Amino acid sequence: MSGDVSSLIASLMREVPDFPEPGIQFKDLTPVLADARGLAEITDAMAESAAGADLVAGIDARGFLLGAAVALKLGTGVLAIRKGGKLPPPVLSETYALEYGTATLEIPADGVDLTNRSVLIVDDVLATGGTVSAAVRLLDQAGATVTGAAVLLELTDLNGREVLTPLPVTSLHRV
Ligand code: AMP
Prior knowledge:
Pathway: Purine metabolism; AMP biosynthesis via salvage pathway; AMP from adenine: step 1/1. This protein is an alpha/beta fold. It has helices at 3-12, 30-33, 36-48, 62-74, 130-141, 160-164; strands at 14-17, 25-28, 55-59, 77-83, 91-97, 102-108, 118-126, 145-154, 169-174.
């Protein structure tokens, strides 16, 4: 991990107390993605971590922005892992626990053949690891191999990295 990217993220991200629920310290990464140098350096660092991936999967919704940028850099396609209820049937689906509440992730069961694809998962924040774990199970159901996960920010107290063991996880900034 480049220290420069980490300090750039630290200088641009915003902390919002008690959002979306009391007790949650929300990390707003909007200013990081809106910064030209921020977006470029994050994309480069994530692409460097993507050894062997032939497809990038971005998690709804900020993972879409980063996922598409990383895919362009790598010369691969991008797959959107959607929140529940957005895709037409047939879908593959996984429900999981969040730091706050529960959620469902879905991908199309038809149309994109994921058998034996090597996939890098991209998201903005790794907290408990529930979201990335659900994405791994989803891609596994589809016959793909997840080669790693890349996130902009890791909340280390929540031990998401351990939950994902032995998956290689690259995080560009840790708090
Ligand atoms: P988790 O499943 O617990 O690893 O949570 C990761 C997902 O929830 C990411 O997609 C984040 O967008 C979101 N998230 C969880 N905690 C926070 C937080 N404190 N600040 C911002 N986003 C968060």
